[in-house]
Amino acid sequence: MIGKWKTPAFWYDAAAPFAAQKAAALSPLSWLYGFAVRQRFDLYYPVPLARPVICVGNPVAGGAGKTPVVLSLVDLLKDRGYNPHLLTRGYGGSETGPIQVSPGRDTADDVGDEALLLVTKAPTWVSRSRPLGAQAAIDTGANIIVMDDGYQNPSIYKDFSLLVIDGAAGFGNGRLLPAGPLREPLEFGLPRAHAVVMLGEDKTGALDIVRQHTDAPVLSARIVPDADNPDLFGKKVFAFAGIGRPEKFKDSLAAAGAVIEGWGSYPDHCVYTEEDLRELMTAASSAAALVVTTAKDYVRLPDAIKPRVLVFGVHVEWEDPVQLCMLIDEAVAAVHGQLL
């Protein structure tokens, strides 16, 4: 049975049916949501830790690209001699933690799909309490913590916060949840960023809005296909995705030259069953087409289906990775001195 939710079309498409009316009707709830976010920051005192914490977050709900940014950041930190551990809430999983993720033991039902991707790069911890999870990582040898999400969580002190913006989607209709995709008011959230990363070309004017609220450095990066992806050029493909903005995956496949004969769009973080995918898999078999999905979706597939599905992976390519590393080094040194 499919769970979770799909990104509402009216958040990003003003031409969607009754877009303005839906946003207006939900505005009172957005006001309450924004008030609750501010109150949460007023009530918490961030816990400082003995090792630096880097937070990678996004201003909108779902689909901005923060997890690929985290994965690329791990490589950069390792190249500089750090021993990073990753920290995530484990959205979609049942574990409250702190628990160190074990790929041979844990499933997406236990720790969430993102944790199973993160652990392929570095030791990963799932913890609803970010301070407890970070401390567990430090006790196990981490000399720097990278948080996947948590920008809107005030419980832990962040030495460096990187805010990720999808250049194609920007801030959507600019409204707070549930009337729009914003997780907090921009005038409150943007000034807390130590740096902003624009993923892809800014097609919505989001950069102008960023400049209105912060003078933090803006870094440029883009999502590119992995070098070891299956060759899909000219091949018939049935694809599916259950991520924040599934159309991004569809665009990536088209750019790789795949001939998309069938498409399935599912809710973000959905837990697939064989029944959910039976029609798509049958149609693909009849058409002699390949079945392709994202790495994040693949870890949520039933084991019986995985051998029949290909993964088309992506990663972040930075325009100037040295600038990002220098910003992190400066932030770490300012609070913790020279760690390495």
Q: In angstroms, what separates the terminal alpha carbons? A: 49 Å
Strand content: 15-25%
Topology-level CATH name of the domain at 43-83 and 143-223 and 316-336: Rossmann fold
CATH architecture of the domain at 43-83 and 143-223 and 316-336: 3-Layer(aba) Sandwich
Helix content: 25-40%
- Tally of helical segments: 11
The total count of strands amounts to: 13
Strand order of the largest sheet: 3-4-2-5-1-6-7-8-13
Poorly predicted spans:
none
Return Rg in Å.
20 Å
Q: How many strands, what sense, and barrel or not for the largest sheet?
A: 9 strands, mixed
Question: Which helices and strands occur, and which strands form pairs?
Answer:
Elements: H1 19-43, E1 53-57, H2 66-79, E2 84-88, E3 99-100, H3 108-111, H4 113-118, E4 124-126, H5 130-139, E5 144-148, E6 160-166, H6 186-189, E7 195-199, H7 206-213, E8 218-225, E9 236-241, H8 246-255, E10 259-265, H9 274-286, E11 290-293, H10 295-298, E12 310-311, E13 314-318, H11 321-336
Parallel strand pairs: 1-5, 1-6, 2-4, 2-5, 6-7, 7-8, 9-10, 9-11, 11-12
Antiparallel strand pairs: 3-4, 8-13
